[in-house]
Amino acid sequence: MASNPQTDPTLEALVAQKYRHGFVTDIESDTVPPGLDEDVIRLISRKKGEPQFMLDWRLRSYRHWLTMKEPHWAHLRIQPIDYQSISYYSAPKPKADAPKSLEEVDPKLLETYDKLGIPLHERARLAGVAVDAVFDSVSVATTFKERLHKAGVIFCSFSEAVQKYPELVEKYLGSVVPYTDNYFATLNSAVFTDGSFVFVPKGVRCPMELSTYFRINAAKTGQFERTLIVAEEGSHVSYLEGCTAPMRDENQLHAAVVELIALEGAQIKYSTVQNWYPGDEQGRGGIYNFVTKRGECRGANSKISWTQVETGSAITWKYPSCILTGDNSVGEFYSVAVANNYQQADTGTKMIHIGKNTRSTIVSKGISAGHGQNAYRGLVKVLPSAINARNFTQCDSLLMGDKCGAHTFPYMEVRTPIASVEHEATTSKIGDDQLFYCLSRGISEEDAVNMIVNGFCKAVFKELPMEFAVEAQNLLAVSLEGSVG
Amino acid sequence: MLSIKNLHALAGEKQVLNGLDLEVGAGEVHAIMGPNGSGKSTLAQVLAGREGYTVTGGTVTYKGKNLLELSPEDRAREGVFLAFQYPVEIPGVNNVYLLKAGLNAIRKHRGESEMDAFEFLTLIREKMKLMQMDESFLNRGVNEGFSGGEKKRNEILQMSVLEPSLALLDETDSGLDIDALRVVAAGVNSLRSPERAIVLVTHYQRLLDYIEPDHVHVLSGGRIIKSGDKSLALELEKRGYDWVKQEAAA
Question: Its family (chain A) (predicted)?
Answer without folding.
Answer: Belongs to the iron-sulfur cluster assembly SufBD family.
